[in-house]
Protein: Interleukin-7
Organism: Seriola lalandi dorsalis
Amino acid sequence: MSNPSPLFCISLFALLLLPLSLSCDSIRPPEEVRNDYRGIVQIELDNAVRHQFLRSKLYRWVMTNVVRTLHFLTCKMKKLRLSHTDGLVGSVINSIHCSCLEKSMKEPNTKLKTATRQRRNEQRKSKETRNLCKAKAILSIMTECYEMLNTLLLMNT
């Protein structure tokens, strides 16, 4: 649970202490009492403004970094070229409104010998397994990023 807002503290402070100080058998005029509390309340108000500014600045910075991380991870997943994650990659890229940079690819050699082709097929299977493991790790991190975004959005509303 976060700290109560300074304005809430000021309101509570005023409701609890001001009536007591004004109702006691004091000979101080209400203006003096008000002036004493004004200094304390002004400090709380100044802290509230500063706290709100820093909080919004931190919020924007964290949101930007989370979105940047999501973009980086999505582009990394796109490079894995797995049919299992193509839909996810497309939807995340569309939601971020930022496409991945594409590198130019060389044309593959079309004439392969049979032994070379078999060896490459075996390598491709193990590479696909590695890529699936990488995709699983990336998905885990992306899930954490989305959870952070949800938490930030709930805290800011």
